[in-house]
Amino acid sequence: QRQSNLAAILNAVGQYTVDNRGALPPGISTTKAEISEALCTALVPTYLPSLPSDPKSNSLGATFTDCTDIDANDIKYDVVQDAEGRVTLSAPNTEDVDPTGTTPPITITR
Q1: In whole angstroms, what is the distance from residue 109 CA to residue 14 CA?
Q2: What span, in angstroms and rounded, lies between the C-alpha atoms of 16 and 47?
């Protein structure tokens, strides 16, 4: 579910960028941060019917159609733009444990 949520959000970011002549939506910067109300507002409902959240977030996997309802830790998906302009979304709260005993995040970059 997390991977499909991240893919849907990243696809919406890509479509926003195409429609806005290469400009990324507000709420994406070179500092990793949780998806914000600003990014939600830019994407919902034009590019996504609702913004999904992580099952381990404060909202327990709910979706948001009213972006003003988003509070800290409601989404629990992070977004960042790298120096080359690529956008990475990540779900840092996965349950999978690798052989070293850590839980690597799920990430998608475009």
Answers
A1: 11
A2: 7
